[in-house]
Specification:
Length: about 325
Amino acid sequence: MAEQSVLLATAGYDHTIRFWEALSGICVRTIQHTDSQVNRIAISPDKRFLAAAGNPHVRLYDAQTNNGNPHNMKLFPKITSFEGHTANVTALGFQSAGRWIVTGSEDGSIKIWDIRSPNVQRDYQLKAPVTDVIIHPNQGELVSCDQNGTIKVWDLGENRCTHELVPEEDVPVRSVSMAIDGSILVAGNNKGNVYVWRTKNKGDFTDLEAVKQVQAHKTYITKCLLSPDTRSLATCSADHTVKIWSSIDHGFELEKTLKGHQRWVWDVAFSADSAYLVTGSSDNSARLWDLSNSETIRHYNGHQKPVVCVALHDISI
């Protein structure tokens, strides 16, 4: 990872968003997010903006500054506020061209917002609190999961839900992830189980075929994430660990367990080359792991409360 091309941010319950020099571990900038805790953060594809999801607002901040003073808050003007949710915003993602964002909330809704206009463009109502939403790599579908244990696929062209999956009745699904080529869908739930579906194109629509179930952890999975090279799956959990699974040939065999965090691990982010992983934990810290040897190579200390979300953008643009 070339330092100048890396944007790394963490946030959580202390109402701050911190930017870090990934390789030195130095906090270079801080945003005071005074509204609430920060549940999710996302960096725009062009690295210009950072979106922060709280309760119940979503704020868009300027992520760029050349000034070295980490305490000058005026360097971080709030660009836009997205108002419309009525409870915790639990999911957040940028469209690949950075033109719109999607959000999901405990208020039971998924909303799409145009970056240039803070008005809601789409509004999908679910019958349960939303726990995660991702944008399909084809940019034309969304995949959501919720507290009722349902996974739904939303077709933006048809403006409706086209698939509904319930891997385990009444077990909340916490996180969903999709391979960058759209070939695999993965979900993790509150019982520590991971479910895998293979996508099959049938004419104009996508079919989902269940191919695997893995008992990944013995307690809550807080996040599951497929690596950019699609060869690995990371799962993090209330058991304080992160596990790396091989997704080659849909095997999902355990490759390594990353140990070091002292409390729940809430979020993970892969580097673009899939060689490194950033994690955030209730132990108030984030870590950078070298996946070749399962070692922590950098600690990010400075938050006063749990770090529940991380964002890493190290693709040269």
